[in-house]
Give the backbone structure.
Amino acid sequence: MTNLDWSWIDLVQLLAAAAVGLLIGYQRELNFKPAGITTMTIVTVTSTLLMQLSIRLSALGAGPITADPTRLAAAVITGIGFLGAGVIIQTGRQVHGITTASTIWLMTGIGLAIGAGYYHPAAAAVLIVWAVLAADPYTERVIAARRERLRRRHGGKVEE
């Protein structure tokens, strides 16, 4: 068996990545946000797969210099920034897609963590983000009401 051989742990990691991608993507779909189930699942599974590959390639130790598993992970993070930038839209003074871009970035990190075997931090991140995303509509309403009160108090002259 070489270091590139596939194992059941790899399958479990990929299935775990798909499950958390589906979970967060489902939450995004429920709120009619871009980058839902399909995008979040693909991003998470891909980053898990790339981390698995990075670890395997570094374990080969071919040649005089051993490969660094963090290099591929760093490249994944850089590349995902371009995808995130593509979902951010500016209309006048309004910017949309920041949460979607940051969620894509987060799911990449979760996928990398799963691929590296850091299951507890990945699960904690999923739970935290699920709670934050679930609370977002309520938080937005509270903030909008507060802004409206400030506008009325200051005669509509509050800058955003």
Observations:
- The radius of gyration is 20 Å.
- Strands lie at 89-91, 94-96.
- The chain has a mean pLDDT of 85.
- The first helix runs from residue 8 to 30.
